[in-house]
């Protein structure tokens, strides 16, 4: 059997990362970009792709490899076009796990509505229910709130971003090559390194500030080093619930701020110091979550209200809307209780 040049090329890259503890080697940035491109374009065989994913997960990707994988995503993935005119605040892209949350109730949609309400353009990205967690995807949460993001083209997403301040990048619609690799996650039973890329990738065609969730400290270190290598503008890392960008109420919020030509800043925010300590709400069903979110949007007391204000206040401060966290918390509560957040949702559902 004669193998094509692409299969031979990929086989050599696979041999480098999959040769075992003592003999495997790291890929260069360009090699990692090539391997990712060959997977995305299905020029590697299914056996090769699955083997590469599990071998690379066991080896753990280096910063150079992460940068190369992101290069391939930039090359092949469609992006929401840059806004035609300048905005008061930079576009902020949130990177959260595509397999979503399965244990704790998210208030992330409220955070997006809050930021958009004060002029911070925000983009989030993801797909449908996905291995390995099979959490409730955000596209379904927004549909339950009356917003349909599935059918928008990239230009349509840009128009919605310009009009409402919130844009969504829907993987099956906007990056079908990456969507075709999703079944491998179920077949290998583990998140592949591509799941890490999704936290760091910006599907926006212009400059953007990036906020990425993480669980383990080594992941955050790699994020920061990759950020520096790729000359990105601003990276904020948060140790969020289940790796998301939602900050817990039952533990200290750990936030890292990386900016070009500035010293790295580490922030430890203790909910009890601001009167927001409490238990994080359990995620039981989409129906219950929708009711909880609608209660917040209506400005009524509920289980998730404190979490919504805590997160909203932090992000209003981090995005430069408020000079300090105390002001951010006050403004977040006002935006919710005075109906401004509800008005923003109405704008999205029209």
UniProtKB/TrEMBL annotation:
Gene Ontology terms for molecular function: anthranilate phosphoribosyltransferase activity
Coiled coil: none
Alphabetical UniProt keywords: Amino-acid biosynthesis, Aromatic amino acid biosynthesis, Glycosyltransferase, Transferase
Glycosyl transferase family domain span: 113-339
GO BP: any one term: L-tryptophan biosynthetic process
GO cellular component, one term: cytosol
Occurrences of domain Glycosyl transferase family 3 N-terminal (ranges): 11-74
Domain of life of the source: Bacteria
Pfam families in UniProt: Glycos_trans_3N, Glycos_transf_3
Protein name in UniProt: Anthranilate phosphoribosyltransferase
